[in-house]
Design a protein that fits this description.
The chain has helices at about 10-25, 45-50, 100-110, and strands spanning about 5-10, 35-40, 55-70, 70-80, 90-100, 120-125, 140-145, 150, 165-170. With about 180 residues, it is an alpha/beta fold. It binds inosinic acid (IMP) and magnesium ion.
Length: about 180
Protein backbone atom coordinates (compact mmCIF):
# COMPACT_ATOMS: atom_id res chain seq x y z
CA UNK A 1 0.00 0.00 0.00
CA UNK A 2 1.52 3.33 -1.07
CA UNK A 3 -0.11 6.39 0.46
CA UNK A 4 2.61 9.01 0.36
CA UNK A 5 6.30 9.72 0.29
CA UNK A 6 7.94 8.49 3.50
CA UNK A 7 8.93 11.14 6.01
CA UNK A 8 10.95 8.37 7.67
CA UNK A 9 11.64 5.22 5.63
CA UNK A 10 11.52 1.60 6.78
CA UNK A 11 15.32 1.44 6.60
CA UNK A 12 15.75 4.59 8.72
CA UNK A 13 13.27 3.27 11.30
CA UNK A 14 14.93 -0.14 11.55
CA UNK A 15 18.42 1.39 11.89
CA UNK A 16 17.18 3.66 14.69
CA UNK A 17 15.37 0.80 16.44
CA UNK A 18 18.62 -1.20 16.56
CA UNK A 19 20.54 1.81 17.93
CA UNK A 20 17.96 2.38 20.69
CA UNK A 21 17.85 -1.33 21.56
CA UNK A 22 21.64 -1.39 21.79
CA UNK A 23 21.63 1.46 24.34
CA UNK A 24 18.79 -0.13 26.32
CA UNK A 25 20.63 -3.49 26.40
CA UNK A 26 23.72 -1.74 27.75
CA UNK A 27 21.76 0.24 30.40
CA UNK A 28 19.65 -2.67 31.67
CA UNK A 29 22.25 -5.43 32.13
CA UNK A 30 21.52 -7.16 35.49
CA UNK A 31 18.27 -5.24 36.05
CA UNK A 32 14.76 -6.59 36.59
CA UNK A 33 13.44 -5.12 33.34
CA UNK A 34 9.74 -4.78 32.55
CA UNK A 35 9.04 -3.12 29.20
CA UNK A 36 5.59 -1.53 29.02
CA UNK A 37 4.21 -0.56 25.61
CA UNK A 38 1.50 2.07 25.28
CA UNK A 39 -1.19 0.76 22.92
CA UNK A 40 -2.31 0.94 20.32
CA UNK A 41 0.18 3.27 18.62
CA UNK A 42 3.42 1.70 19.87
CA UNK A 43 2.65 -1.92 18.93
CA UNK A 44 4.96 -2.05 15.89
CA UNK A 45 7.79 -0.07 17.42
CA UNK A 46 7.47 -2.08 20.65
CA UNK A 47 7.69 -5.46 18.93
CA UNK A 48 10.63 -4.41 16.73
CA UNK A 49 12.43 -2.83 19.70
CA UNK A 50 12.16 -5.72 22.17
CA UNK A 51 13.40 -8.28 19.66
CA UNK A 52 16.66 -6.33 19.53
CA UNK A 53 17.02 -5.89 23.31
CA UNK A 54 19.52 -8.53 24.32
CA UNK A 55 18.88 -8.87 28.06
CA UNK A 56 16.18 -10.82 29.99
CA UNK A 57 12.90 -8.90 30.24
CA UNK A 58 9.17 -9.15 30.74
CA UNK A 59 6.55 -7.24 28.80
CA UNK A 60 3.18 -5.69 29.52
CA UNK A 61 1.00 -2.93 28.09
CA UNK A 62 -1.01 0.14 28.98
CA UNK A 63 -3.98 0.89 26.76
CA UNK A 64 -4.68 4.61 26.72
CA UNK A 65 -6.43 7.06 24.44
CA UNK A 66 -6.56 10.81 24.13
CA UNK A 67 -7.03 11.48 20.42
CA UNK A 68 -10.23 11.93 18.42
CA UNK A 69 -9.29 11.73 14.71
CA UNK A 70 -6.34 14.15 14.55
CA UNK A 71 -7.04 16.33 17.61
CA UNK A 72 -5.90 15.63 21.15
CA UNK A 73 -8.86 15.74 23.53
CA UNK A 74 -6.50 16.70 26.36
CA UNK A 75 -8.08 14.02 28.53
CA UNK A 76 -6.34 10.68 28.97
CA UNK A 77 -8.41 7.54 29.49
CA UNK A 78 -6.58 4.42 30.68
CA UNK A 79 -8.45 1.30 29.51
CA UNK A 80 -5.92 -1.32 30.65
CA UNK A 81 -3.11 -1.17 33.19
CA UNK A 82 -0.66 -3.98 34.14
CA UNK A 83 -2.09 -6.23 36.85
CA UNK A 84 1.25 -7.44 38.15
CA UNK A 85 3.20 -5.78 40.93
CA UNK A 86 5.28 -2.85 39.60
CA UNK A 87 7.06 -2.30 42.90
CA UNK A 88 10.83 -2.96 42.68
CA UNK A 89 10.72 -3.33 38.89
CA UNK A 90 12.92 -1.42 36.47
CA UNK A 91 10.35 -0.12 34.05
CA UNK A 92 10.90 1.08 30.52
CA UNK A 93 7.85 2.79 29.06
CA UNK A 94 7.66 2.62 25.26
CA UNK A 95 5.58 5.13 23.31
CA UNK A 96 5.20 5.81 19.59
CA UNK A 97 5.10 9.60 19.74
CA UNK A 98 5.16 12.42 22.27
CA UNK A 99 3.14 15.44 21.25
CA UNK A 100 1.69 17.63 24.05
CA UNK A 101 3.13 15.23 26.66
CA UNK A 102 -0.23 14.93 28.41
CA UNK A 103 -0.63 11.17 27.78
CA UNK A 104 2.87 10.23 28.88
CA UNK A 105 2.68 12.43 31.95
CA UNK A 106 -0.60 10.79 33.08
CA UNK A 107 0.75 7.26 32.53
CA UNK A 108 4.07 8.10 34.14
CA UNK A 109 2.35 9.43 37.28
CA UNK A 110 0.21 6.31 37.57
CA UNK A 111 3.26 4.03 37.26
CA UNK A 112 5.32 6.09 39.74
CA UNK A 113 2.50 5.80 42.30
CA UNK A 114 3.21 2.01 42.27
CA UNK A 115 6.80 2.59 43.51
CA UNK A 116 8.93 0.94 40.81
CA UNK A 117 12.74 0.83 41.34
CA UNK A 118 13.17 2.99 38.25
CA UNK A 119 11.19 4.39 35.34
CA UNK A 120 12.63 5.44 31.98
CA UNK A 121 10.86 6.53 28.83
CA UNK A 122 11.59 5.56 25.23
CA UNK A 123 9.77 7.31 22.37
CA UNK A 124 10.26 6.79 18.66
CA UNK A 125 9.05 10.25 17.65
CA UNK A 126 9.24 13.62 19.37
CA UNK A 127 6.99 16.47 18.13
CA UNK A 128 8.80 19.05 20.29
CA UNK A 129 6.96 22.15 19.08
CA UNK A 130 3.66 20.99 20.53
CA UNK A 131 4.83 20.23 24.06
CA UNK A 132 2.57 21.46 26.90
CA UNK A 133 4.09 19.39 29.72
CA UNK A 134 7.83 18.85 29.93
CA UNK A 135 8.31 15.10 30.29
CA UNK A 136 12.01 14.11 30.47
CA UNK A 137 12.81 11.46 27.84
CA UNK A 138 15.58 8.86 28.14
CA UNK A 139 15.65 7.39 24.62
CA UNK A 140 14.39 9.30 21.56
CA UNK A 141 14.33 8.06 17.97
CA UNK A 142 13.58 11.08 15.78
CA UNK A 143 12.50 14.70 16.29
CA UNK A 144 9.78 15.50 13.78
CA UNK A 145 8.04 18.70 12.58
CA UNK A 146 4.59 19.73 13.75
CA UNK A 147 2.65 17.64 11.19
CA UNK A 148 0.10 14.90 11.71
CA UNK A 149 1.74 11.65 10.71
CA UNK A 150 0.56 8.08 10.15
CA UNK A 151 2.12 4.66 9.61
CA UNK A 152 4.32 2.27 11.60
CA UNK A 153 1.55 1.88 14.18
CA UNK A 154 0.27 5.47 14.14
CA UNK A 155 -3.26 6.11 12.94
CA UNK A 156 -5.73 8.65 11.68
CA UNK A 157 -9.14 7.55 12.99
CA UNK A 158 -7.77 3.98 13.44
CA UNK A 159 -6.58 3.72 9.83
CA UNK A 160 -3.08 3.49 8.29
CA UNK A 161 -1.41 1.72 11.23
CA UNK A 162 -0.18 -1.03 8.87
CA UNK A 163 1.95 1.22 6.64
CA UNK A 164 5.55 0.06 7.24
CA UNK A 165 7.01 3.60 7.14
CA UNK A 166 6.05 7.03 8.55
CA UNK A 167 4.34 9.56 6.30
CA UNK A 168 2.58 12.91 6.67
CA UNK A 169 -1.20 12.46 6.67
CA UNK A 170 -3.13 14.37 4.02
CA UNK A 171 -6.89 14.85 4.24
CA UNK A 172 -7.43 13.48 0.72
CA UNK A 173 -6.18 10.10 1.97
CA UNK A 174 -9.22 9.76 4.22
CA UNK A 175 -11.00 7.42 1.84
CA UNK A 176 -8.06 5.24 0.69
P1 LIG B 1 0.14 13.66 23.65
O1 LIG B 1 -0.63 13.25 24.88
O2 LIG B 1 -0.39 14.94 23.09
O3 LIG B 1 1.63 13.71 23.86
O4 LIG B 1 -0.20 12.63 22.53
C1 LIG B 1 0.38 11.42 22.43
C2 LIG B 1 -0.53 10.46 21.69
O5 LIG B 1 -1.27 11.12 20.65
C3 LIG B 1 0.33 9.44 21.00
O6 LIG B 1 0.41 8.29 21.78
C4 LIG B 1 -0.41 9.17 19.71
O7 LIG B 1 -1.28 8.10 19.89
C5 LIG B 1 -1.21 10.40 19.44
N1 LIG B 1 -0.56 11.25 18.41
C6 LIG B 1 0.09 12.43 18.60
N2 LIG B 1 0.53 12.95 17.45
C7 LIG B 1 0.15 12.07 16.49
C8 LIG B 1 0.34 12.03 15.06
O8 LIG B 1 0.95 12.90 14.42
N3 LIG B 1 -0.20 10.96 14.43
C9 LIG B 1 -0.87 9.96 15.07
N4 LIG B 1 -1.05 9.95 16.40
C10 LIG B 1 -0.55 11.00 17.11
MG1 LIG C 1 -0.32 6.49 21.34
Amino acid sequence: MFIGTPLISEEQIQKKVRELAYKITRDYANKDLLVIGILKGSFMFFSDLIRHINTPLKIDFVIASSYQKDKSSGEVTIHYFPREELKNKDILLVEDIIDTGISLQAIKEKILSMNPSSLKICVLLDKKERRVIDVPLDYVGFSIPNKFIVGYGLDYNEMFRNIPYITIFKKELKHV
